[in-house]
Write a structure and sequence with these properties.
The chain is α/β, with parallel strands linked by helices and 446 residues long. 48% of the residues lie in helices and 16% in strands. The chain contains 16 helices and 14 strands. Strands 9-8-7-6-10-11-12 form a 7-stranded mixed beta sheet, sandwiched between helices. Bound molecules: NADPH dihydro-nicotinamide-adenine-dinucleotide phosphate.
């Protein structure tokens, strides 16, 4: 088996040189899915995983724009249309200087499995730009978004490819891009998700990823006759996912010890309560400030410059910032300090070595493609509401989100039960694979 897997990895690697993030994502899936393919005649001999690992289409384009000093800036834009076997391409746009093809291909590959897990009819895609929104004025952001959409608009559409937000792309950026799309196409359609509620957005969409991570984490704990109540939770990030993960943890009676941004983390020994979280939300979403400013407002807290929060003792860890932010030593530290459960809010935040340690120690570990699927699930619900030209209530969407997260948890159990221990990584990979592979087999070699 090892030889078949390593042959497959070499073949994918030969075609995707210098793409470490993409290879990391493909390798993890291959290790779980290839043994399953070998045991199941319908998939064997169809080169199905090789086909899934090859994007259907990759678009790269110039984004030229003029900054506030009237200087011309040039960035690169991308859209990776990975797989449309079960529905139109769906996945976020990321604006961050670290964006390159490897990062977007890993995200689009993960998205394909994640979208399949939601049970909604959505294929996988991802896009973005190496543009850095930090320190830019509102008008610079608008000019960039308009220029970006002036090329992207010809590749997307409500039945073709429906982008959403991700790192650096929130409601402000979605608004500017939607406005430009509408102007270019002269039509009002559900081409982007994450829209404002008054112009086609869904209630609960901003909360959905963070809430979903916590619903999934709670499911894992309940399955072990445990719960989030009174647990110490360490969270990384202070963006969209981190904020709403923290909010839902507080609703369920947990204590939030940390939050972070790319400059370091804050530790509050008294806990970050709802009032303090409201301060962070205003700081990050309105004032666009840095997390260190929390310590000025709450002097009993401490800021750890350039550090990640994984050495703070906790029972639950929710990495909600970015890929590969939690490595081998962090995993060892977390376990040593009593951590029993990890829910990935970000995409691929734990390194393969860290995941191996969690699984070896039989720690509850939820991979992002399962635990953070709530965001795209509610995006799917936004698309449904747009098609119906109707809006569901907050309660209705939240109930559907909870049901979807429970169903994903159940799918992971169905495919990941190893003599009583639930290997959620294996469960999510195989469950996500089966639906996409079945559709691809039915649709022939295309
Ligand atoms: P935001 O841009 O709202 O927030 C990102 C947060 O992570 C910020 O606090 C940011 O700090 C921090 N961060 C970003 N890059 C780094 C880095 N290299 N090192 C340390 N910290 C970093 O993004 P989201 O909350 O939307 O996304 C967070 C993660 O969740 C990503 O992996 C994303 O792909 C994933 N995700 C998001 C979904 C969504 O619906 N938004 C859906 C599913 C997954 P700073 O401000 O300093 O950059």
């Amino acid at each position: 088996m090892k030889e078949i897997i390593s042959q497959f990895i070499s073949e994918v690697n030969a075609r995707n040189k210098n793409e470490p993030e993409f290879m990391q994502a493909v390798t993890e899936v291959a290790e779980n899915v290839i043994p399953y393919i070998v045991q199941n005649d319908i998939y064997y001999g169809q080169n199905i995983l090789l086909r899934i690992a090859e994007p259907e289409r990759v678009i790269s384009f110039r984004v030229a724009w003029i900054d506030d000093k009237e200087e011309i800036q040039v960035n690169r834009g991308y859209r990776v249309e990975m797989n449309s076997a079960i529905g139109p391409y769906k996945g976020g746009l990321r604006f961050h200087p670290s964006v390159n093809l490897s990062v977007l291909k890993f995200l689009a590959f993960e998205q394909t499995f994640k979208n399949s897990l939601t049970t909604l009819p959505m294929g996988g895609g991802k896009g973005g730009s190496d543009f850095d929104p930090k320190g830019k004025s509102d008008t610079e952001i608008m000019r960039f978004c308009q220029s970006f959409m002036t090329e992207l608009f010809r590749h997307i559409g409500p039945n073709r490819d429906i982008p959403a937000g991700d790192i650096g792309v929130g409601s402000r950026e979605i608004g500017y891009m939607f406005g430009q799309y509408k102007r270019l196409k002269n039509e009002f359609t559900g081409v982007l998700t994450g829209k404002g509620v008054s112009w086609g957005g869904s209630l609960i969409r901003p909360e959905a990823t963070g809430y979903g991570v916590v619903y999934f984490t709670q499911e894992m704990l309940v399955n072990k006759d445990n719960s989030l109540k009174d647990k110490k939770v360490v969270i990384s990030g202070s963006g969209n996912v981190a904020q709403y993960a923290a909010e839902k943890c507080l609703h369920l009676g947990a204590k939030i010890c940390t939050m972070s941004d790319s400059s370091g983390y804050i530790y509050d020994p008294e806990g970050i309560n709802l009032e303090k979280l409201a301060f962070i939300m205003d700081l990050k979403n309105v004032k666009r400030g840095r997390i260190i400013e929390y310590t000025n407002k709450y002097p009993n807290s401490e800021f750890f410059k350039g550090k990640k929060p994984w050495d703070v003792p906790c029972q639950i860890a929710l990495p909600c910032a970015t890929q590969n932010e939690l490595g081998k030593y962090d995993a060892q530290n977390l376990i040593k300090n009593g951590c029993i459960c990890i829910g990935e809010g970000a995409n691929m935040p734990c390194s393969p070595e860290a995941i191996e340690i969690f699984l070896k120690n039989k720690i509850l570990f939820a991979p992002g493609k399962a635990s953070n699927a709530g965001g795209v699930a509610v995006s799917g619900l936004e698309m449904a509401q747009n098609s119906l030209r109707y809006s569901w209530s907050r309660d209705e969407v939240d109930k559907r989100l909870q049901t979807i997260m429970k169903d994903i948890h159940q799918s992971c159990i169905s495919f990941g039960n190893e003599k009583g221990f639930i290997n959620y990584v294996k469960g999510a990979n195989i469950a996500g694979f089966v639906k996409v592979a079945d559709a691809m087999l039915a649709q022939g070699v295309v």
